[in-house]
Amino acid sequence: MRLTAVIIALLLLASMPGCTSFFSEDEIGCPDNPPDGGVCAIEDYDYKMTAIGVDFSGMDLSDGNFTGATLVYADFSGADLGGADFEGANIRGADFSGADISGTSFVGAIYDSGTIWDGGAPEASGLIFFGPGSDLDGVNLDGRIPFSWSPAFYAFTSDGQTEFPEVGPVDLSGSSLVGASIRDSWIFVADLSGSDLRGVDFFGSDILFVNFSNADLSGANLSGIEASFIDLSGADLTGAELFDFSAPNLRGCPSILPDG
Question: How many structural domains compose the chain?
Answer without folding.
Answer: 1
